[in-house]
Design a protein that fits this description.
The chain has 124 residues and is mainly α. The longest helix has 20 residues.
Length: 124
Amino acid sequence: MANTCTILRRIEKISQKLADLLSRPASRRTLDKIINQVRLLKGSVRELPIAKKAKRDILNRLGQALRLLQSGNLNTAFARVLAVLSILQVVVLKVQNRRVPCAQGLTIVHPSKPFSTICQICDP
């Protein structure tokens, strides 16, 4: 099962690779790797235990990012790279606003709610 920690880390890595495209040209192989990582991210979001409407919204935004990445040469389209980065930042906010139990990291068990654990990484 996916959790918010892994999704946020993947988004951070993808965002860093996209930011690197702004300063240097990328090969088709690099772009394909980024596209595949966004596809994997979509798969992870599908596994999140959140409401259908919120999940659909996040998946639609990631779909928009994929379409922008696949539409032409990103080496000459800084506006598209910036748009994808903006979309990923919106996804980060939407994922962070969902309280999802986290199996990784240091978890806090609240005595009044023994079945509710929240990761300190996900919920600082």
